[in-house]
């Protein structure tokens, strides 16, 4: 399903990722898959029609699902943080540390430890933030949200890395779990500040 500007929601959630959402980004320099849906012929066909997959960005260990199958079929390179490597030990590009890492023009990996030790978000063109299990929209709260009850590593770390996102500009939050949302960048920043403050309580 097209969201906008060559960014698609994949659907076909995999039970291997606890039903996590995944996304496809179409770009002339090479297409990206962010986390992984089920490996299904109809999805493979759609990806092939859009030019295949060059890169697979894995936010964290929970949502790798069938990434290895997609990587094998499309000769795609998988990107994962070293602290998550046991979930995809033969990944082609391994990131380390806590500093943001430019991956390609317009693509920035942002380490956001907390939910897991090596969790990362991916910022696309200062508009789209793919957040894995770090951050999502809550329809009930009508605000950005994160969950202490699904934090597998450190709530303190997740709180700090949430606050660190305030330095970046984006309009979309595209999560693995929870609802996606598009807001004006200034509103998104205000929501992040409010969320980080709630998390410190």
Strand and helix layout:
Layout (H helix, E strand, L loop, with lengths): L1 E3 L2 E3 L13 E3 L6 E3 L6 H9 L5 E3 L9 H8 L2 E5 L11 E3 L5 E4 L2 E5 L8 E5 L3 E5 L3 E3 L4 E3 L9 H10 L7 E4 L5 E2 L2 H16 L1
Strand order of the largest sheet: 1-2-3-4-5-6-7
Q: Structural class of the helices, strands and pairings?
A: alpha/beta
The top-level CATH class is: Alpha Beta
Helix-residue proportion: 10-25%
The major pleated sheet works out as: 7 strands, mixed
DSSP helix count?
Answer: 4
Low-confidence stretches: none
Beta content comes to: 25-35%
List SSEs in N-to-C order.
EEEEHEHEEEEEEEEHEEH
CATH fold assignment: Metallo-beta-lactamase, Chain A
Determine Rg (CA atoms, Å): 16 Å
- The dominant shape is globular
- Arithmetic mean pLDDT: 97
Provide the domain count: 1
| N-end to C-end Cα span | 38 Å
What oligomeric state is this?
single chain
CATH homologous superfamily designation: Ribonuclease Z/Hydroxyacylglutathione hydrolase-like
The name of the CATH architecture is 4-Layer Sandwich
